[in-house]
C-alpha cells in the first residue's frame, strides 16, 4: 500500500503548484467570462452576453485574420528554421565544439531579457536614417528611410518571434539528430547517397517525434503569446498587429473589462484544445503510438 502511495506523495508538491497556479486560474477565468466584472470587481453574472458582444466586436474579423497569419507564419519559422539550424550545427558541422558554439550563439535571444531583445529590434527597425535597416538600405540601394513598423508591422513581429522561437526547436532537433547512430550516415555515404537523401530518408524519419512535439508546443505558445508584440508595436498601427491574446490583455488590464477579457481568453483555450487535436491527428500521433507499442 505504501509503495502505491509513494509516487503520489512525491508528486504532491508539484500537483499542488499545478492546481494553484494553473487549474484554479482557469476556473476563475471561466467564471469571470460570464460576468460583466470591471474596475468595481463585482460578480454580476450576465450569461453569454460577453460572447455575443465578441462576435459583434468591430475588430473581431481582423483579430482572427491577424492571429492566423501571426501563428501560421511564426510557426513555420520556428519549426523549419530550427530544423535548418539543427542540421547545420549537428550534421553538417562535424566538429562538436564548433556545433556547440553555433547553438549557444542562437540561444542568446532566448536567454536575453525580452525588453533588451526588443530594444535591439527597435534599433534595427528605427524609422530614422540611423536605424540599422535604413542605414543598410541607403548604402546598398540609396533609398530613403522607411518606417518599417508602420508599413510592415506583422512581418516584423513574425521575424522577431521566429528568431527567438527557433532556438527552442534547434536544441530539441539537435539532440535528436545526435542520437542517430553515426554508422547509418557512414553506410549511406558508402552507398553513394546524396546529402538530401540522408536528410530525407534517415534524419527526418528519425526525428518525427521531436518535430511533432515542437510543432504542437510552439503552436500552443504562439496562440497565447503577446509579450513581444506588446513591446514592439502594442498591436499598432491601429489594429494591424493586434492578435487575439493581446486584445484580451488590452480589454482586461487596459480597459479594465475583466469579464469581457476573460471571455476572449476562454475562447482562446477552447481554440487551442481543438487546434492541438487537429495537429496531432495531422501529424499522425495515433500511428506513432501504435508503432512504438509494436516496436
Description:
77% of the residues lie in helices and 0% in strands. It has a domain at 66-236 and 264-294: MetI-like (MetI-like fold, Orthogonal Bundle), CATH 1.10.3720. The chain is mostly helical and 295 residues long.
The assigned structural class equals mainly alpha
CATH superfamily of one domain: MetI-like
Cα-atom radius of gyration: 23 Å
What would you say the CATH architecture of one domain is?
A: Orthogonal Bundle
Task: Kindly estimate the percentage of residues that lie in beta strands according to DSSP.
Answer: under 5%
CATH fold-type name of one domain? MetI-like fold
| Intertermini distance | 33 Å
The profile of the biggest β sheet is: none
* Sequence of secondary-structure elements: HHHHHHHHHHHHHHHH
Helix content: over 70%
Mean residue pLDDT? 89
* CATH classification class of one domain: Mainly Alpha
How many DSSP E strands?
0
Discrete helix count: 16
- Coarse morphology: globular
- List unreliable stretches of 5+ residues: none
Give the SSE map:
Blueprint: H1 2-32, H2 49-55, H3 60-92, H4 96-106, H5 108-111, H6 114-124, H7 132-141, H8 148-151, H9 153-178, H10 182-190, H11 195-206, H12 208-224, H13 227-232, H14 244-254, H15 258-282, H16 285-294
Helix pairs in contact: 1-15, 2-15, 3-4, 3-9, 3-12, 9-12, 12-15, 14-15
